[in-house]
């Protein structure tokens, strides 16, 4: 894998939003006592009049943000992913999705990023739940640079959306922000006709590493990177499935209803293909560091390699 960026995806998003907010006074950051964990310190110092602190009240923050959006503001909510797709789910469903208020939730420390805090702080159901809400968009950028481009693309987008990132800095997938980002479109990071590896968020880097290692064994794997789970670029998936005949998906999410579920739903109807879905099984996650969790459940690069080789036997 490439080197880990010095800054996390949290820093990327809040830093980019601050740049944009200096020029656009309609941008407002809303948080529920998460200024530190969301890396909003610089934003608060620079633009206190564009910042709203509601305290530990996630449900209320969604209502406040929806109200701001109804008045023409561009609100971004910042807080732990685990709470915004559990505690405030009704408000997200009604105040954002049903009402089509262009509020953006930036869920930090998603997946298993909170590590040993345990199941109460994991968010492994967010993709599955939120993609069922009509009009709701769901995004998982893979690195610092893609997070930056995603922020720029969403700031003026008139749709409710959920963006999930982890906590710590991650390896760069792209060299810089000039990699040809297109909102809602998958990126082909490696070419190959033997098998397709599909990732989103932090698993993209693992898919790339798996493909590079498989190449040393003579297996040419295609890698599809999805920053957008809804809308979903099904054309890229179908094309890859038709040309490779085998698909492995890897995600920091339950194996139910996430990236793997999306791909299975599409392929079952459009292009039946043998596949494997890698992620967290329907059980409470072990208490371990994030990368240990990735390895234990087999959605790190080694697990992806094994699944690919097994599928090709």
From TrEMBL:
Xref: SUPFAM superfamilies: Thiamin diphosphate-binding fold (THDP-binding) (SSF52518), TK C-terminal domain-like (SSF52922)
GO molecular function annotation: 1-deoxy-D-xylulose-5-phosphate synthase activity
Upper lineage: Bacteria, Pseudomonadati, Bacteroidota, Bacteroidia, Bacteroidales
Key word Transferase present: yes
SMART domains per the UniProt record, alphabetical: Transket_pyr
EC number: 2.2.1.7
The protein's name in its UniProt record: 1-deoxy-d-xylulose-5-phosphate synthase 1
Keyword Transferase tagged: yes
Keyword list, A-Z: Thiamine pyrophosphate, Transferase
Family named by the database record: Belongs to the transketolase family.
Cofactors that this protein relies on: thiamine diphosphate
InterPro entries linked to this entry: PDH/Transketolase, THDP-binding, Transketo_C/PFOR_II, Transketolase-like_Pyr-bd, Transketolase_C
């Amino acid at each position: 894998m490439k080197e880990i960026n010095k800054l996390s995806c949290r820093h990327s998003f809040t830093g980019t939003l601050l740049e944009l907010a200096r020029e656009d006074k309609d941008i407002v950051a809303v948080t529920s006592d998460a200024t530190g964990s969301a890396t909003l310190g610089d934003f608060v110092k620079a633009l206190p009049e564009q910042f709203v602190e509601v305290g530990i009240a996630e449900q209320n923050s969604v209502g406040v943000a929806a109200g701001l959006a109804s008045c023409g503001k561009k609100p971004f909510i910042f807080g732990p992913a685990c709470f915004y797709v559990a505690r405030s789910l009704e408000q997200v469903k009604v105040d954002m999705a049903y009402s089509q208020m262009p509020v953006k939730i930036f869920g930090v420390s998603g997946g298993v990023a909170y590590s040993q805090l345990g199941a109460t702080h994991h968010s492994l159901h967010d993709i599955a739940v939120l993609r069922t809400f009509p009009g709701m968009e769901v995004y998982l950028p893979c690195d610092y640079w893609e997070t930056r481009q995603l922020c720029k693309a969403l700031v003026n987008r008139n749709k409710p959306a959920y963006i999930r990132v982890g906590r710590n800095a991650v390896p760069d997938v792209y060299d810089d922000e000039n990699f040809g980002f297109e909102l809602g479109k998958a990126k082909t990071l490696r070419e190959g006709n033997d098998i397709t590896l599909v990732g989103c968020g932090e698993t993209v880097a693992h898919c790339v590493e798996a493909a590079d290692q498989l190449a040393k064994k003579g297996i040419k794997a295609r890698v599809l990177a999805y920053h957008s789970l809804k809308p979903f670029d099904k054309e890229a998936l179908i094309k890859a499935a038709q040309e490779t005949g085998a698909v492995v998906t890897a995600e920091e999410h339950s194996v139910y209803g996430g990236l793997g579920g999306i791909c299975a739903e599409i392929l079952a109807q459009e292009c039946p293909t043998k596949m494997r879905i890698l992620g967290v099984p329907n059980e409470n996650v072990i208490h371990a560091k994030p990368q240990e969790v990735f390895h234990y459940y087999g959605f790190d690069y080694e697990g992806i390699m094994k699944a690919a080789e097994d599928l090709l036997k």
